[in-house]
From TrEMBL:
This is aminocyclopropanecarboxylate oxidase. Its EC number is 1.14.17.4. Coiled coil: none annotated. GO terms for molecular function: 1-aminocyclopropane-1-carboxylate oxidase activity; L-ascorbic acid binding; metal ion binding. Pfam families: 2OG-FeII_Oxy, DIOX_N. It comes from Linum tenue. Pathway: Alkene biosynthesis; ethylene biosynthesis via S-adenosyl-L-methionine; ethylene from S-adenosyl-L-methionine: step 2/2. The keyword Magnesium does not apply.
Length: 316
């Protein structure tokens, strides 16, 4: 079974009321049952997406590939005796783009290709930030929350929401059974938008105790919800476990954009979603906390179950 696909144009202005209602209901169901779905007709131009793929591939080849091949990780894997598995590492090359770090200028010279990378990724990030806003509004509506509820919660605490983009490559792995591409985890933050490789698969999501492929689909955007949406929705939208398998062939490109609360934002279940609102959220399991505190716990426990993280942050 493949993960669900949603035509996002059917929630937009051009859709009939019936089409819109049906698509909104589907998105609600996918958020509740999967925590993962793919958007097509999401409004981001094919031309931009093609450029993003090109500059990211070029960037990896020019700036990263050689280092990866010379990394201690590469050597550890080739030295590892058969039958063993490398623990606590991921077969992944990562750079992260932020608002004030649109490109990792410290590591790069002023090559033309890098300028293309920076400009294209800035354009892409602006589009993805808009898409995050639209997806959050759909979730507000489906959860019966006022418009912009989730966005305002993430932007609380006197700081703007965090918006980061992780550009990953999972190079072909000579011994894929001996290392993970990316170990299983749930995402800490809010709404995650993934532009994954058209061809090379490897991403899997856990549903009802079974792992499912997140099937590559040309120029689609995969949406998943993180731990903070689980808390805000009072458990209606659970963050799903996912992982990436290392693969023997092909270099998998995957660009994950995270729309997360600001570090100072206070996160708690929306009062509208807590039954018998007067009793207090503690009784229902999800704590109220500052997101920065959650992140300090997550930094130590990313690859562990989320429930102890909720417990830890409750005690802070
Ligand atoms: O690379 C991928 O496809 C998934 C990345 C991911 O799950 C993450 O960075 O949290
Ligand atoms: Fe993730």
């Amino acid at each position: 079974m493949a993960i669900p696909v949603v035509d996002f144009s059917k929630v937009g202005n051009g859709a009939s009321p019936e089409e819109r209602a049906a698509t909104m209901a589907l998105i609600a169901k996918h958020c509740e049952e999967w925590g993962f779905f793919q958007l097509v007709n999401h409004g981001i131009s094919e031309e931009l997406l093609e450029r993003v793929k090109k500059v990211c591939t070029e960037f990896f080849k020019l700036e990263r590939e050689q280092n990866f091949k010379q990394s201690p990780l590469f050597k550890s894997l080739s030295d590892l005796p058969d039958g063993q598995k490398l623990e606590n590492v991921d077969w992944e090359d990562v750079i992260t783009l932020l608002d004030h770090n649109e490109w990792p200028s410290k590591t790069l010279g002023f090559k033309i290709s890098c300028l293309h990378f920076r400009d294209t990724m800035a354009e892409y990030r602006a589009e993805l930030r808009k898409l995050a806003g639209q997806v959050m509004e759909v979730m507000d509506e489906n959860l019966g929350l006022p418009k912009s509820y989730i966005k305002n919660a993430f932007n609380s605490g006197g700081e703007e929401a965090f918006f980061g983009t992780k550009v990953s490559h999972y190079p072909p792995c000579p011994k894929p059974e001996m290392v993970n591409g990316l170990r299983a985890h749930t995402d800490a933050g809010g709404v995650i938008m993934l532009f994954q490789d058209d061809v090379v698969g490897g991403l899997e999501v856990l549903k009802d105790g079974e792992w499912f492929d997140v099937q590559p689909m040309r120029n689609s955007i995969v949406i998943n919800t993180g731990d903070q949406v689980e808390v805000l929705s009072n458990g209606r939208y659970k963050s799903a476990w996912h992982r990436v398998q290392a693969k023997p062939d092909g270099n998998r490109r995957s660009i994950a954009s995270f729309y997360n609360p600001s570090m100072k934002a206070t996160i708690a279940p929306a009062p509208q979603l807590v039954e018998n609102g007067g009793v207090g959220v503690e009784a229902f399991g999800y704590p109220e906390f500052v997101f920065g505190d959650y992140m300090s716990v997550y930094a130590e426990q990313k690859f562990d179950p989320k429930e102890p993280r909720f417990q830890a942050v409750r005690a802070m």
